[in-house]
Design brief:
Number of domains: 1
Number of strands: 8
Helix content: 10-25%
Number of helices: 1
Largest sheet: 4 strands, antiparallel
Radius of gyration: 16 Å
Amino acid sequence: MNNRLETKNSRSGGGLFVANPEKVILKIVSVKGTCAAGHYAGQEFDLSKDFLLGVSGDPRALCPSAFHAIFPPWRVLRHGGAFPWEEDRDKTTIACPDPFNPVVMELRRVKL
């Protein structure tokens, strides 16, 4: 069995989980219009560390709407999964849900 995976028995019959989640970096690729949270191209967030959610203007704060958009694919990459439509299994691209000021973001898994 892969040393990153462990089995856990529980009343529900057990399951498989990743014992050591992967490091994932969020990068703002582009911003069209004006991002209400102040995100800008090139901005990065290390999602394996503490980060803030909010639209306070603090450069460490990630917009809650952006986080809502990235949460499912972040969990996939963080726990060893991949997206079959992506050429690089360690990356995926997501767009902010604001259709008038779209922010394009990239999630990148970093092998430690």
